[in-house]
Design goal:
The structure holds two protein chains of two kinds. Chain A is mainly α. Chain A has a single domain, classed as MetI-like fold (Orthogonal Bundle), CATH 1.10.3720. The chains are: A mainly alpha, B alpha/beta. The interface between A and B is medium-sized, with 20 and 26 residues.
Chain lengths: 216, 242
């Protein structure tokens, strides 16, 4: 039997952690763009958009992320699309984050007093100008803490991608455990790495929140 | 300047405007008076499309109000300025930027030019030194004067004032009313909803008394207060004095 030193374990986990980071970024950026587009469709009162987006959000918030991953991975295969675990995980997590982010941001936009819409509207600004110059700058201040908080959820959510065979931090942990038979050590290292990824983000969120509150 | 005919509107099953006909000429100063819930503010808000009326016609400066037509609405709103009870300044922008925003975006005015105009307007409302201040650093009266300057920056043909002193502490009402009075003196067309009866009597060319969604009486202040024709107006006036 080959002997694994702690460094071997850590090194392999760190290599796999890159994929966790990358998958998180894809989910966050993709979900952010899609979420913003969905929100825009709602604000612009596109016919049917409010109901459709409402159903979409309920669907993703009302089912486990694990099922969403399975359904994306095996569902796409059903349609003859043989996608890699990487694509399926990226897609599922993007959809998942878009549903949450669009709802978080909708709340932030709704928190802006109606008077701001009315005042900017009565100054003849069109919808785009109202959003860009009046609503979004104010909503952004409110949105930063919950958005950053959700980023942490995404990072942890990527762990589930291991079930469809995507080799990120958790999957790598399982594989190393199978080779080393030292589950406690390995999973402790895995947990620490998630913590090392998430803690700075939460800390940053708290700093931002403090800074924004002071600015008021 | 403003031409309203047969305007009707309801919120749910409640009809708030029951056929309003009103014409306001250029340079006229008109105050709408009446009890709360009589439809005064709703009528005012209809004039720049903040409320959607059900039937009737409305035109400002020859520009008809068409709901659902964004371009026509944008045109109309450039003719109509509005000042709100709750100021509604943009809290994330400096006072100067609040005034400059619409002219630079809608009128495509150059920043330098817009800034010059903003400084002029702020001087006119007595706040020249507040150009770089933020709204939350100002008193209510000052905020409302900035809101007036912001509306004037679009060079509207008509200025609508929706109970603009109702949210102010009593000692701050005077400074705002003085600005409005100076606008009236300069020949601005003004349509205001107000509870400041003595002010309305002093500056208005015409008073409009609304009750339960209808215009009950209108005419010069002396006539309405001196010789009220309807029991509703008599009751309204006696309640004021009582």
């Amino acid at each position: 039997m080959v002997d694994f030193s702690l460094w071997d374990i850590l090194r392999n986990l760190l290599l796999a952690a890159r994929w966790t980071v990358l998958l998180s970024l894809v989910a966050f950026v993709g979900g952010g763009v899609a979420g913003a587009a969905l929100l825009l469709a709602r604000i612009a009162r596109l016919p049917g958009a409010d109901r459709l987006v409402g159903v979409y959000v309920q669907l993703f918030q009302g089912t486990p992320l694990l099922m969403q991953l399975f359904l994306t991975y095996f569902g796409l295969a059903l349609f003859g699309l043989n996608v890699s675990a990487w694509v399926a995980a990226g897609l599922a997590l993007t959809l998942y984050s878009s549903a949450y982010l669009t709802e978080i941001w909708r709340g932030c936009v709704n928190a802006i007093p109606r008077g701001q819409w009315e005042a900017s509207g009565s100054l003849a600004l069109n919808l785009g100008e109202q959003l860009r110059h009046v609503i979004v700058p104010q909503a952004l201040r409110i949105a930063i803490p919950p958005t950053v908080g959700f980023m942490v959820q995404i990072v942890k959510g990527t762990a589930l991608a291991s079930v469809i065979g995507f080799i990120e931090l958790t999957k790598a942990g399982t594989m190393i455990t199978n080779a080393t038979f030292r589950p406690f050590t390995v999973y402790a290292c895995v947990a620490l790495m998630y913590f090392a990824l998430c803690f700075p983000i939460s800390a940053w969120s708290r700093t931002l929140e403090r800074k924004l509150n002071r600015g008021r | 300047m403003i031409r309203i005919s047969g305007l009707r509107m309801h919120f749910g099953s409640n009809e708030v405007l029951k056929g309003i006909d009103l014409e306001i000429g250029a340079g006229e100063v008109v105050a709408i008076i009446g009890k709360s819930g009589s439809g005064k503010s709703t009528l005012l808000r209809c004039i720049n499309g903040l409320e959607t009326f059900d039937s009737g016609a409305l035109a400002v400066d020859g520009q008809a109000l068409v709901h659902g037509d964004a371009a026509a609405m944008r045109m109309l709103r450039q003719h109509v300025g509005m000042v709100f009870q709750s100021f509604n300044l943009f809290p994330h922008l400096s006072v100067g930027r609040n005034v400059m925003l619409a002219p630079t975006l809608v009128r495509k005015r150059a920043t330098v030019e817009a800034e010059l105009q903003a400084r002029e307007l702020l001087a006119r409302v007595g706040l020249a030194e507040k150009f770089d201040a933020h709204p939350d650093q100002l008193s209510g009266g000052q905020q409302q004067r900035v809101a007036i300057a912001r509306a004037l920056a679009m060079e509207p043909a008509v200025l609508l004032c929706d109970e603009i002193t109702s949210a102010l502490d009593p000692e701050l009402v005077g400074e705002v009313l003085r600005v409005v009075e100076s606008l009236a003196d300069d020949g601005m067309t003004l349509l205001m909803v107000t509870h400041e009866m003595s002010f309305a009597r002093k500056v208005s060319d015409r008073l409009v008394f609304m009750h339960a969604g209808r215009i009950h009486e209108m005419g010069p202040p002396e006539q309405l207060f001196g010789d009220p024709q309807t029991p509703e107006l008599r009751q309204f006036i006696s309640a004021l004095n009582g």
